[in-house]
């Protein structure tokens, strides 16, 4: 019988090889892959001071509702992964910090400490906790570079159910409502689309592309600048208010006409 000498492998050898391959792959990816939004975008771009300052602002003005680690509480949702765009939208429009809990945070006058610098710092801190949609560039929200005709088609297909044909807003359920867009800046409109604040669903870039979002912004800016050719616009809420106004005014005129005719007849008889 021939002796076959074989060197037996250790039972843990295959696991060691697998761990080595994973570690090698992770190292290559770390070196070669570009920095993404899901990473700490603020720190990666050198804005460490903004993150530190934003953390202090958050602890002073936001942590009571959203938690010290952005984990959320009974009175406020988690902010992990919402991104800088959500912070910029909510704070720049005065919705946050909220004055009091409610079905929906309304647009209001901003607090005295809120300015471009503090908003940027808060956004950098929240962005560092899980990433998320970034604040859009000026070019991405420039209505002059959009196609308002295409934007109108997209707006009518995706937004009029809540915001009305001209962005005048409307009532929703459970005390919520779609706000009018007359006071919203192009950047805030873009940020609302990518973050989906409150009752609004988010529209990511695979649903509505950045170019299409800019087209929609061009339409909103154009239509809210139009003058009503018929005179008083009645809030531009739509056919319901127009029909109601016509009904009330029309019935009132008919009643007045009937009273006038009756009075004339009485005068003739007397």
Automatic annotation (TrEMBL):
<feature type="binding site" description="axial binding residue">
    <location>
        <position position="163"/>
    </location>
    <ligand>
        <name>heme c 2</name>
    </ligand>
</feature>
<feature type="binding site" description="covalent">
    <location>
        <position position="62"/>
    </location>
    <ligand>
        <name>heme c 1</name>
    </ligand>
</feature>
<dbReference type="GO" id="GO:0020037">
    <property type="term" value="F:heme binding"/>
</dbReference>
<dbReference type="InterPro" id="IPR009152">
    <property type="entry name" value="bc1_cytC-su"/>
</dbReference>
<keyword id="KW-1133">Transmembrane helix</keyword>
<feature type="binding site" description="axial binding residue">
    <location>
        <position position="66"/>
    </location>
    <ligand>
        <name>heme c 1</name>
    </ligand>
</feature>
<feature type="binding site" description="covalent">
    <location>
        <position position="159"/>
    </location>
    <ligand>
        <name>heme c 2</name>
    </ligand>
</feature>
<keyword id="KW-0349">Heme</keyword>
<keyword id="KW-0249">Electron transport</keyword>
<feature type="transmembrane region" description="Helical">
    <location>
        <begin position="244"/>
        <end position="263"/>
    </location>
</feature>
<dbReference type="InterPro" id="IPR050597">
    <property type="entry name" value="Cytochrome_c_Oxidase_Subunit"/>
</dbReference>
<keyword id="KW-0813">Transport</keyword>
<dbReference type="InterPro" id="IPR009056">
    <property type="entry name" value="Cyt_c-like_dom"/>
</dbReference>
<keyword id="KW-1003">Cell membrane</keyword>
<keyword id="KW-0812">Transmembrane</keyword>
<keyword id="KW-1278">Translocase</keyword>
<feature type="region of interest" description="Disordered">
    <location>
        <begin position="128"/>
        <end position="147"/>
    </location>
</feature>
<protein>
    <recommendedName>
        <fullName>Cytochrome bc1 complex cytochrome c subunit</fullName>
        <ecNumber>7.1.1.8</ecNumber>
    </recommendedName>
</protein>
<dbReference type="InterPro" id="IPR036909">
    <property type="entry name" value="Cyt_c-like_dom_sf"/>
</dbReference>
<keyword id="KW-0408">Iron</keyword>
<dbReference type="Pfam" id="PF13442">
    <property type="entry name" value="Cytochrome_CBB3"/>
</dbReference>
<feature type="binding site" description="covalent">
    <location>
        <position position="162"/>
    </location>
    <ligand>
        <name>heme c 2</name>
    </ligand>
</feature>
<feature type="domain" description="Cytochrome c">
    <location>
        <begin position="49"/>
        <end position="224"/>
    </location>
</feature>
<keyword id="KW-0677">Repeat</keyword>
<keyword id="KW-0679">Respiratory chain</keyword>
<dbReference type="GO" id="GO:0005886">
    <property type="term" value="C:plasma membrane"/>
</dbReference>
<keyword id="KW-0479">Metal-binding</keyword>
<dbReference type="GO" id="GO:0005506">
    <property type="term" value="F:iron ion binding"/>
</dbReference>
<feature type="binding site" description="covalent">
    <location>
        <position position="65"/>
    </location>
    <ligand>
        <name>heme c 1</name>
    </ligand>
</feature>
<comment type="subunit">
    <text>The cytochrome bc1 complex is composed of a cytochrome b (QcrB), the Rieske iron-sulfur protein (QcrA) and a diheme cytochrome c (QcrC) subunit.</text>
</comment>
<dbReference type="Pfam" id="PF00034">
    <property type="entry name" value="Cytochrom_C"/>
</dbReference>
<keyword id="KW-0472">Membrane</keyword>
<dbReference type="GO" id="GO:0008121">
    <property type="term" value="F:quinol-cytochrome-c reductase activity"/>
</dbReference>
């Amino acid at each position: 019988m021939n002796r076959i000498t074989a060197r037996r492998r250790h039972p843990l050898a295959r696991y060691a090889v697998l761990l080595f391959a994973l570690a090698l792959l992770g190292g290559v990816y770390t070196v070669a892959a570009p920095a993404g939004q899901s990473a700490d975008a603020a720190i990666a771009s050198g804005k460490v001071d903004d993150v530190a300052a934003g953390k202090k602002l958050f602890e002073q003005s936001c942590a009571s509702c959203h938690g010290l680690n952005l984990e959320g509480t009974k009175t406020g949702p988690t902010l992990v992964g919402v991104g800088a765009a959500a912070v910029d939208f909510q704070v720049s429009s005065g919705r946050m910090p909220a004055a009091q809990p409610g079905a929906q945070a309304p647009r209001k006058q901003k607090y005295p400490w809120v300015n471009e610098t503090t908003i940027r710092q808060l956004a950098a801190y929240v962005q560092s906790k899980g990433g998320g949609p970034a604040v859009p560039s000026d070019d991405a929200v420039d209505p002059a570079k959009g196609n308002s005709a295409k934007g109108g088609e997209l707006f009518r297909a995706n937004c009029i159910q809540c915001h009305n044909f001209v962005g005048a807003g409307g009532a929703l359920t459970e005390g919520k409502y779609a706000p009018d867009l007359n006071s919203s800046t192009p950047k805030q409109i873009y940020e609302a689309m990518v973050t989906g604040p409150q009752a609004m669903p988010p529209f990511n870039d695979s649903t509505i592309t950045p170019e299409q979002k800019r087209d929609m912004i061009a339409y909103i800016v154009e239509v809210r600048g139009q003058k009503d050719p018929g005179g008083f616009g009645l809030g531009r809420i739509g056919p319901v208010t127009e029909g109601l106004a016509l009904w009330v005014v029309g019935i009132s005129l008919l009643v007045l006409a009937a009273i006038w005719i009756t009075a004339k007849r009485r005068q003739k008889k007397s």
